[in-house]
Amino acid sequence: MRVARHSRRRKTPSVDPRTTQKFLEMNMTDQIGFFDAIYTQRAIRHLKPDPVPRETIERLIRAGTKAPSGGNSQGWKFIVITDPETKSAIAEYYLQAWEMAYGNQNPSPPNIQSHVRSSADYLARNMADMPVLLMACIHHDGSPSTITRGSSIYPAVQNILLAARALGLGSAITTLHKRYEKEIKDLLGIPDNVETAALLPIGFIQEGYKYGPTRRAPVSEVTYWEKWDES
User: Which residues of 132-170 are buried (b: 16+ CB within 10 A; e: fewer)?
Assistant: First the structure.
């Protein structure tokens, strides 16, 4: 004779009141389609300072680790940075790198649109206020640095960006910090055989900013069949 088991109702975990509404939105945006996520994944740099739950960040990283990895080496490592002092130190290096690359003495390249530069400038001047900075790192074998060395990290980064999109979080990929690679590695205690690959600010999106369709060149302009052909 089987004894009936009484199901227990799971308690809803407590959520910071400041993020309750975003969690409601997350429950909806988490159901968006795969191609919807890809086609509407904008770089969003205007983020609220509200903290992002640890389990949410871990969920993003878990999505990252499901990406393809050369030889299944899984050489990626991720540093989650929320400490104000550490963020401020990184922000200082980042702003210096930004000024070196895109300061007033260096006008934007013609292919960088004004609104993109404005958004990037905002990030450079407010990096310390981002609730989470995620540093994506990759082990290397000491071979000369090339475009392919450690490139397995970038599918993982894209997975994280798509997961953030699905959960209604804002993020963007940047690599300007690498102008101060040594200083930042020393700051974060990163060993010599590990290289930083990308810095991702992550947080809840400010009002007035949202995901939406991205503007890209048509496939016909970037695709050749069988061989290179610019005719």
Answer: bbbbbbbbbeeeeeeeeebebbbbbbbbbbbbbbbbbbb
Nearest alpha carbon to residue 48 among 28, 22, 30: 22
What pLDDT is recorded for position 133? 99
CA distance 132 to 119: 18
Would you give the end-to-end CA distance of the chain in angstroms? 79
Q: What is the pTM of this model?
A: 0.80
- Select from 60, 43, 26, 22 the least CA-distant residue to 212: 43
Report whether 161 contacts 171 (CB < 8 A): yes
Residue ranges per structural domain of the chain: 19-206
Domain 19-206 sits in CATH at 3.40.109.10
